[in-house]
Amino acid sequence: xxxxxxxxxxxxxxxLALTSVHVTCARALFTAPPSSTISVFANPPFIAANGGVSVxxxxxxxxxxxxxxxxxVVQFFTTLGTIxxxxxxxxxxxxxxxxxxxxxxTADVTASSGSVVLLSSGLVTIGSALPASVVVTANPPAINxxxxxxxxxxVANVFDASGxxxxxxxxxxxxxxxxxxxxxxxxxxxGGAPIYTDSxxxxxxxxxxxxxxxxxxxxxxxTATTANGAAxxxxxxxxxxxxxxVAPSPLPSPSPLPSPSPSPSPxxxxxxxxxxxxxxxxxxxxxxLTGTGFTGATNVSFFDGVxxxxxxxxxxxxxxxxxxxxxxxxxxxxxxxxxxxSATDFTVTP
Length: 350
Hints:
Blueprint (H helix, E strand, L loop, with lengths): L1 H26 L9 E7 L2 E3 L4 E9 L11 E6 L3 E2 L2 E3 L4 E7 L5 E9 L2 E12 L5 E7 L2 E2 L7 E9 L10 E8 L8 E3 L6 E2 L5 E8 L8 E9 L4 E8 L33 E6 L2 E2 L4 E7 L6 E5 L2 E3 L1 E5 L2 E5 L5 E9 L2 E4 L5 E2 L2
Parallel strand pairs: 2-9, 11-18, 20-28
Antiparallel strand pairs: 1-3, 3-7, 4-6, 4-8, 5-7, 8-9, 10-12, 12-16, 13-15, 13-17, 14-16, 17-18, 19-21, 21-25, 22-23, 22-26, 24-25, 26-27
């Protein structure tokens, strides 16, 4: 009799142990192996306050260079707004939504999977409204003289679709030669770092020149671009007192007679991919594209038309990742102006 009781107790204990193991396994998170790599992107990188949504994507690559299995759990945390606490990978990428609240500022986002953790500071900028237009002014509009006075104060006025100033949004200033479009002997005091608009919707930078004082005059173009691609420009004359000098007109001259029919708006040309870095890597590798005409990009694809997740950074830069199924070949970017393809191949490694 005692043997029968002990046998039943042993069977019950075994059943409870198995049940406990099953419950523990069911609750365990399927996470990335140690030493994996996480890359985090936001699309778009700027959203309006009070309900704006940015898709946060975390691409995870195993130490061997392969993407993690589907269903790998990634946990997310944010310092501003709210974010889905957990996402699962598909083709090596987990995506969640970050939703803004009434506060403006920058959101630092942390993505973690197992022991692999990545903090992305300032990943998403949250502002009062989306920038729709940028008006740039220069004071003075011409740089003459010697020494420290050879600079101009550049102000970017950022407005929303209703014409209201947009506060707490980043603007990046750049300068090129107005005639050639290439980098000039001028530079911005910010060095290309973002400058945030103040309570009046203004961001201020300074144009400085290293152009020789006794050289003939020339024109440069300063452009201010917001995180969502709104941009404005102003022309500045260097050595305007050295003849002959012809400054570009900031506005087209009015026609004395009405035009019989409006001229069609010029269609932008296709984007141009000048380079990409790195030039090789496995599926899931972050890749930075550099070129021109990226504004309005709708698709980034690798050889054989394999579409990839991408994040628009500016008219000259796009961040993307090598998608599952990609093969060695050129990279293409598609915009409303057409499709541009790189002159060299990206090498997909095992």
